[in-house]
Write a structure and sequence with these properties.
Elements: H1 2-25, H2 51-69, H3 92-110, H4 123-142, H5 147-150, H6 152-175, E1 180-181, H7 194-204, H8 208-219, H9 223-228, H10 239-255, H11 263-278, H12 294-316, E2 332-333, E3 342-343, E4 347-348, H13 355-373
Antiparallel strand pairs: 1-2, 3-4
């Protein structure tokens, strides 16, 4: 019981703190504008472009990009990669996933097809097809290992966590005053009723965690990349400092939502990762103590790659603004200060880097809930000690 309590109360506090802060931030309503409207809608324009902030953030991201490209400049030694295993044949689910991806991709972008309103249901099967295709590619490259082949329960659990986890982030988005919103569900623009739209959103949320985990396992099938960040500086993070800093950041984010819009990701990451470190539970930061930065960086890179796919398919579902998007889940960003130089129409250039801490957060939330509910959270072959 003590163990369960220790895992539950930080989640509850992270949910209650924004409500407590909103009591002071919004003295009339005690809630941010648009709170509770689902799917979230546009509520107010964020502050416009700020050159100083843009340049400062661009420099930080450029340095991090150099770190990823040239880790030897930052104290890493590049080891000789291990031999690559003999490839296996593509499994049947690879071909099924590829067919689903290509069909629903075509359907969502073509807009007018003989399949009628099926286009409005294309987003989730497109993504699950993509997940299956990624898994099949992992299976081939690893010589017969993949999440679906070896850890199907883990893949299924990741889908369940994904549904709950993304609702958690949608909740924080209300307090950040809408870093993203879904304009295509206002006043019945979609030929679908609101209940159907809500169901489509909830089902779509099941794809986030599985997709990022498939990217992570895929990157680990490249021996040179998997070992590239394994011999670096040894760093031990302070769990208690991370843990309580996360709560503080979440509270003040509600008071200053625009300058601290990024806290909805970093604050939660600090809480969950700090809590795991405090409890000596394995997480992506654990191996940094030994100089192995591979787990944390590869899941971050995998999330970035997945982000490009998210934004590509989102953009293609609304290439004609005069018409409703073919994807009811279509989203728009309203990010303060840096909302310029868009790639695939909606996501600003500097915003893509946000996918990297998000990928780490996805993993630590999964590990946290695995500890709470007792399911295996290991992702790679031989990682039995991480469940």
């Amino acid at each position: 019981m003590q163990r369960i309590y220790g895992l539950v109360w930080p989640i509850v506090l992270s949910v209650v703190l924004p409500l407590a802060a909103a009591w002071f931030a919004y003295p009339v309503t005690h809630l941010p504008p648009g709170f509770g409207v689902f799917p979230p809608q546009f509520v107010a324009n964020a502050p416009g472009f700020n050159l100083v902030i843009f340049v400062a953030l661009a420099l930080v991201e450029a340095i991090f990009a150099l770190f990823l490209l040239f880790p030897q400049w930052f104290g890493f030694s590049i080891p000789t990669p291990p031999p690559k295993p003999a490839p296996a044949r593509f499994p049947v689910w690879f071909w099924l996933g590829a067919a689903l991806t290509l069909f629903f991709w075509w359907l969502m972008w073509k807009r007018v097809t003989p399949f009628g309103d099926l286009v409005y249901y294309a987003f989730t099967p497109l993504w699950w097809g993509f997940i299956l295709a990624l898994d099949g590619l992992v299976y081939r490259r690893s010589g017969g290992y993949s999440l679906l082949a070896a850890r199907p329960k883990t893949l299924l659990n990741s889908a369940a966590v994904s549904l709950v986890g993304w609702l958690y982030f949608e909740y924080f988005d209300y307090f950040a005053l809408g870093n993203w919103y879904y304009p295509n569900t206002v006043n019945g623009v979609m030929p679908l009723n609101h209940a159907t739209v809500v169901i489509l959103y909830l089902v779509a949320y099941t794809t986030v965690w599985p997709a990022i985990f498939e990217w992570y396992t895929l990157l680990n099938t490249f021996p040179g990349l998997a070992s590239r960040y394994s011999n670096g500086p040894k760093i031990a993070l302070t769990g208690r400092l991370l843990f309580w800093s996360g709560f503080f950041l979440i509270f003040v984010m509600v008071l200053f939502p625009h300058p601290l819009f990024w806290v909805m990701w970093v604050g939660a990451l600090a809480i969950f990762s700090g809590g795991l470190i405090r409890k000596s539970i394995w997480n992506p930061f654990t191996t940094m103590v030994e100089g192995n930065w591979g787990p944390i960086l590869l899941v971050a890179i995998g999330s970035l790659f997945n982000g490009f796919c998210w934004e590509l398919w989102n953009w293609g579902s609304n290439t004609n603004p005069a018409l409703p998007a073919t994807n009811p889940n279509y989203w728009i960003y309203d990010i303060p200060y840096v909302n310029v130089i868009h790639i695939f129409s909606e996501m600003p250039l500097l915003g893509y880097m946000g996918y990297m801490p998000f990928g780490i957060l996805v993993w630590v939330v999964f590990i946290w809930l695995g500890e709470l509910f007792g399911f295996d959270t290991a992702l790679l072959k031989g990682d039995q000690d991480k469940g």
